[in-house]
Please model this.
Amino acid sequence: MSKLVKTMLLSLVIIVLVGVVAAVIILNVLDKRDKGEEQQSIDEIVEYSYQTPEITTDLSDGSFVRIQFQIITDSKDAKEEIEKREFQVRNILIKELATKDEDSFKSGLSDVEDILKVELNKVMTEGSIEDVYTINKILQ
Model:
């Protein structure tokens, strides 16, 4: 083989190796950055969270519950919107709690949180609800 062909092959192999190494590095950096964006920091969670007022309502078996939630949104605009939608939060809670009795309420609190999240996301226009936490609950 001539010296020119050897030089071209060597150059081609080096370029391919550099390209593969660069692709692997870029993909790893982008993947780590994307995962970091998905999770909010605790400061963002506090900044974008809304605490509902305490709600007292009756359950289907005649008992009463006093409950309060912390709603985590994905942005400042979403937090402002959920504050304005407090009446819808109350409405969804009253409708959902009216179908539960004391026993199912004790074991199905996560279901209430999930339903609240899904129903509120249906009406949200400026962002979304990331999570709902029960912060106060009294059954009577």
User: Anything to note?
Assistant: The first strand starts at residue 49 and ends at 51. Residues 1-39 form one domain. The two ends are 92 Å apart (CA to CA). Residues 88 and 131 are 17 Å apart (CA to CA).
